[in-house]
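Rotation project, supervised by the postdoc (A.L.). Task for the rotation student: set up a whole-complex structure prediction and record inputs and outputs verbatim in this book. Inputs entered:
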Amino acid sequence: MSGTVATAPTLPATPAAETLRRANAFQRLLRRPAAMLGLVVVLAFIVIAAGAPWIAPYDPAATSWSAIRKAPSFAHWMGTDELGRDAMSRLIWGARASMLAGVVSVAIALALGVPLGLVAGYAGGWTDAAISRFTDALLACPFLILAIAMAAFLGPSLTNAMIAIGVSAMPIFIRLTRGQVLAVKVEDYVEAARAVGNPHARILLRHILPNIVPPLIVQATLTIASAIVAESSLSFLGLGQQPPAPSWGSMLNTARNFMTQAPWLAFWPGVTICVVVFAFNLLGDGLRDALDPKEG
Amino acid sequence: MTNQARPTSPRLLAWAAGLALAAALHAAPVAAQHLRIGLQEDADALDPHVARTFVGRIVFAGLCDKLVDYDAGLRFVPQLATEWQWSEDGKAITFKLRPGMRFHDGEPIDAEAVKFNLTRALTMQGSLRRAELGAVASIDVIDPLTFRMNLREPNPTLLSQLADRSGMIMSPKALRELGTGFATRPVCSGPFRFVERVSQDRIVLEKFDGHWDAANIHIQRVTYRPIPDTTVRFSNLQAGALDMIERLAPNDLGAARTDRRVRVAEIVSLGFQSLLINTNHGPRSETPLGRDPRVREALELSLDRQAINQVAFAGAHAIGNQPMPPGTEYHFADLAVTQRNVARARQLLQEAGVPIPFPIEMQVINSTDAQTVGQIIQSMAREAGFEVRLSSVEFASSRQSQARGDFQIIQIGWSGRMDPDGNYYHNLHSRGPTNDGKYSNPAVDRALEEARSVNDTARRQALYREAAGNVIQDRPRIYLWHPKWIYAHSPRVSGFAPNPDGIIRLRGVRMQ
Amino acid sequence: MQGFLLSRLAISMPTLLIVTVLVFGLQSLLPGDIALVLAGEENDPAGIAFIREKYRLDDPVPIRYLAWLVQVVQGDLGHSIKTQIPVTDLILQKLPVTAQLAFWSMLVALLIGIPAGIIAAVKKGTALDHTANAVGLAGLSIPNFWLGIMLIMVVAVEWGALPPGGYTPPTESLADNLAGMIMPAFVLGSGIAAVFMRHTRSAMLSALTADYVRTARAKGLFERTVIVKHALRNALVPVITLGALELGQLFSGAVLTETVFNIPGFGRLVVEAVFNRDYAVVQGVVLFTATAYILLNLLADLLYALVNPRLRG
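Outputs recorded:
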C-alpha cells in the first residue's frame, strides 16, 4: 500500500483513453460466442416483456371456468391454469415481473451500496469501520431470511419484493466498491488529483468512480441473475407478485398444488427462469472476461 | 456445521445396528399398531387451557379426555363423566364421574381433580377458556365422584364447551409440579400418553394401559406429523410413509379415489367460509358497500357458489348461505341459497347510484387456495359491474387489519362449533369477539342472547331462524360454503369414523 | 497468529451486535401481532391482553431489546411464544437435521464440483471444458425450489423411487433417513457444486501455469503426478476456504429446500417463525446462524493464513 512513488503523475485517465479501453472491451465481448448468446437471450426477453400485450395470444387474466387445467393443445400451447387462463400468455406477461424484479432490485442495491462503498473506501478510519461492520452484519444474516422478513414487513407485493431483494443485495456492492476504491485511490492519477487540491466529492465522482465501473457492471449483471431467482423464491412463498398479475414464481407456487394433475403448469415457468438466469450469468461471465482479460 | 454432522455417522451405524436387532425381535406387531397421521400444521402449546389451534385439538383427542364427548350426530355421550343432570332452573349442572380412573401419572381422576382443572381454566392468567366458561360461578365437590357447577345464568352451551378443551382434565399433580413447563410434557387423562415432541416434526403418543376405555383402543402408538404442503402430505400417504392424513386437497380427491393404496373418508364440517364485509367498523365501512345493503346484495347476486366450489375445489364442499351447515338441527333449508343473477345485480348497483364499474377492495390471505377463490370472485363480480381489487396479506397481518377494521371485504372462515351459539354469537352479535365488521342489529342481538339462555331446542331453533333470516337480508357476511373434512388413509386402517368437528378420534380404530 | 485471531474475534463482536439490532428492529416493524395470531378464533380480549403483557409486546422496542440482550448474555434465548418450547431446545432439535442436510449437500457439491473443475482445467478449451462450464453455469441458474419440485414430481410421484419429502430420524429408520436425504442433498448440493467447479477450475488453471508446476514438468514427471501432487494440492487451498464460506450460504438455500421437501430444520423453523411473528425464535435462530457464519469466516481466514503466512500481518 505504501509502494506508490510520489513522482510526477504520468497517465491520468483521459476521456479518450477511457473510450478506447471500453471499445476494446466491447470488441472482446463480441468475440465471445457464449456471452453473445447470453446477450441475445436477455435482449429477447426484454423484447418479450416490453411487447407482452402484442405477443401474448390471450388476455392473461381471462378466466374460463369450463377449461381449467387443460393439457397443452394447439389452442393453448402450454395448457391452461387453475382458472382456465392461457398459461403461455401468463408466462409472457410474467416476463415483465421477473425482468423488472431483476433490474430494479439491482438498481436499488447499486444506488444504496455504491455510495456507501465509495465513502467507506475513500474516507477510511471510523467511517470505514462502521460501514464495514454494518456490511458484515448484513452478510451474516442469511440473504433469503433478510429478504423474507423485509418483504413480510413491507407487505406482499412485487414492488416490496424488489425493495427487499435490493436491500438484501446491497452489502455485496458495498464490499465490492470499497475494495475497488482502496485499490484505485493509491493510483497515481488519484494522488495527482488530490495534490492539485480537488474537493473529495469531485475526486470520488470524476476520478475514482469511472475506474471502478467495470467490476460493478460485471457484479450487477450476475446479481440480476440471482435477483430473478430471489423474486421467484419470494413469489413462491407468497411474498412477491400478487394475483391476478402473473409472475413466474407465483405461477410455480400455484402449480405446486397440481403437480400430479397438471405437471405442465410447473414445468414452463421453471424452465423460463432457468433460461433467463443462465443468459444473465453467461453475459456476466463474458463481461468479466472482456473487461478484465487477466482473469478467467 | 460439518463438525456437527460428522459425528452423527458412526452413531447412525450404532443406531442402525440396534434397530435391526429390535426389528428382528418384534417389528411386525409393533409396526402394525403404529398409526402415523399427517397433519396440516404443527400444534401449538400442548396445554388445553392455552391452546388455540385446530390440529392441537386433534392431538388432544388422544392425549386428554373431556368430561363429555359427542358423536357424529352431535349427540352428547359420556367420557370422563357418565351422567349429568341440569337443575330445574337451568342454573346448575351435576356430573357423576366414572369410578376408578387414573391420570397418566397414576393419580386418581376425581371430583377434586376436575375442580382444580376448571378453576385453573377460569382463573389462570393467559387461559383462553375463561370466556367459554364465563357463566360458571362456582364448583362444588359433593363426593369424590360427584360435583356440581353453579352458573350465574342458564347456559345451554356449557355442555358443548365441556366437550372441548374447556372440559379436558389434566393431572393436578403434574400441573403443580411442572408449572409453565407442563405444555412441553403434558400429563393428562386420555387413552394415549405423551412420549415426545419434536417441533414441526412429530408428536408421539403411546397407548396408556390404565385408561378406562383401553379395551377399545387398538393402536399401540400414534405419531402426528405436521406436513403443511397438501401435495407432499398426500404423496407421503401414497408412498406408505403415513397411514392417515387430514385435509386432503379437494383437487386430489379424484386421484385418491382411484388409488388402490388409499381410502377416503369425508364429512361436511360445522364451519363455513364467507366474505366478511366491513359494515360498521371505522372509516373503511363508510362506503356504499358498507352502508347500502343493495350493493352487498348485488355482490352476492354476482356470485355463483356452485361454480366457485367446482373450479376451486372440484365440487367437494357443500355450498351454503347461513352459519350452520345442512344436516344439523339448526340449519334452515327454507332460507334458500341466492342464485346468480347478473342482470339483477347490475340493476341494484344502478339503483344504489354508484359509479360502474364500482371499485371495491377484497383482502385475501396469501395462500394459493384463498387467492384462487379471490380471483374467481373478482372475475364473477366484474361481470356484474364491480371492480374488485385483491389485496394479499399474510395471515398475521390480516388478523391485525381485522382487529382494526382496516378492510372492506375479507375472505375468511370459521372452523365451527357443535353448538350454534359458537357459529352465531361470536361472529354476528354486536359484542361478538370475532364480529370484526361490527355488524349490529338489535333484533339479531336479542335473538342470540335469548338463544344462549334457554334449553329448549324448539325455542332455540326459532330464535336462530330469526337471526339467520335477518343476517341473510343484511349481509354483514356472505356465507359461501361449508368445507368438507376430507381424510385419506391406508386400507390397513379400519374403524375410523369422521366427526363433523374434524377431530380424529382413535377409539375403535384398528390397523390391519 | 494469536494476535490475528484475537483481533478478528474482537471485530466480530460489534458485527453480531449489529445483527441483533437489525433483526430486532426489522421485527418490531413487521405488521401483524402474535397476540392476535395466538388468540385464535376465540379472540378473547383478556387472553390477548395477557399475551401482550407476558411477552412485553407493548414495551418500547429499545427496552424490549435490552431485556432480550440481558437474557441472551445469561445464556437464555427465551421461549417460543407459539409453542412455549425454549428456543435453545428448538435450535438443538433442528440443528442435527439441518447439519445432516448440510453435510450431504456438501458431500454432493465436493464430489461433483472438484473433479469437474479439475477436468475442465486440465482439458482447457476442449469440448469437455465447455460442457463442464455450461453445466456449471446451469447449476447456478436453476432455482433450487423448482429443481426440487421437478424431482419430487418425477422421482417420487412418477417413479415412486424415493420418498417425496419429510424427514425420518435415523433412530427410527436409517434407510428411510438416507432415502429422504438424497433428493434434498442433491438439490442443495448441485448449486454449490457449480460454485466449486468454477473456483476449482480457475485455481487449477493458475496453478498449472505456476513456476513449481513448470519445474515439475521440466523434471519429466508424469502429467498425472504433476496434476495431482503439485497443481491440485495448491489449488485446493482456496477451494477449501471457499467451502467454509459456502456452508454459511447453504443456509439460505436450506430455507426453500426444507420448505419444498418438508424437512423440519432451521430453514422451516425460521420461515414459519417470521410468518407467525414468533419473535424470540427468529431472534434466536438468526443470532445462532450469524454466529456460525462469522465463526466459519474466521475459520476460513485462519486456514488461509496458515498456508499463506504473508497474510498474517
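Student's summary: The domain at 32-55+74-290 of chain A is CATH 1.10.3720.10 (MetI-like fold).
Supervisor addendum: Chain A has eleven helices and no strands.
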